[in-house]
Amino acid sequence: MLSNPEDGIDFRGLTSVSLWPMLFSLVKGKSLRDHCQAEANIAWGFRSSGPKSEPIAMLLARINSSPKGNKCECYREMEICSLAVRKPWQGKGIARNLLQAATGWAETQALDQVTLAMPENQAYTPALKRLTSLEAGWNDSPGKVIVTLSDPIKVGALLVRLEKMAKRQKQRWGWKIAPYPDELTSELQARLTEPGEPNIGKPYDPNQPYSIGWHSLTYSRLLMADDKLVGWLAAHQLSPNLLRYNKVWVDPGWEKSGGLLAMVADVMRSAHFAGVDLYANNLKSCKPIPKGCFSFHPQHRNMPRMSERHFRPVASKWVETRMRSLPLPRASKSHAKGKVSSEA
What we know:
alpha+beta; Aminopeptidase; two-stranded antiparallel sheet
């Protein structure tokens, strides 16, 4: 069972001993601090008993924090990234026990809510619905759409069209694509410190690295106009085989400039079709990175229409999700004292 395909973790290898060193590397030394930028990873797991004890289930979560308005307070939530139970052990209440342990811990630590992204129309969707039922106090709202691109013929044809469009729009609007810097420029730093929603219109923050994968300078871009920053694409490499087009942004007024799709096309060319003849009919796979993915919220102003038009016809996967959220009792927050530990 994989609650969030966007995170790129394949739990089919749950029996591998390599999973546990990875898990401990995520949670070792992490702790929640009374600071709005504090983030941490935490996990719960089950092992079978007996002389041949092996891992049979795991829940991996991330603690996210963001400021509450202008007050010196933080809104903190626990995002359940993945929930996995080995097939022979499914149907025995193990997943429910893991979820109860996680939500119970979150309540004692004065967190505001627990969230879980639930893919629709998947084999495990009914199980996740039962675990996060509305009767149990969970709320339901539209979640992100997760798009995966991997077919070299279809994606290659799309890239040809995008590059032609970008060439026309560049002549009209006068923007140019520049490399993403290895250190934050003054303009990028100013964007990070601007007030507003923490993840809207913000570039990648090196002080908050990804818990899985890494920020890829090679496949990130800036959009410039008259030497002024007007957009960016910050790539998140989830694995050697999967690149996530994570933070893609153009400033208001530049939505119709073609700059956003031009950055995407530029990265697609270098990440998935390096040295490849796009007009060849015998393409077997994309290279050097076989797959790309991105996500968007259906209530976003421009992304749904653009994605439906350009990317859905060539997508190898198009997964719509629902967001489940569990508000935690405020009474517990008044009793939370001292430093909070995230040891699993």
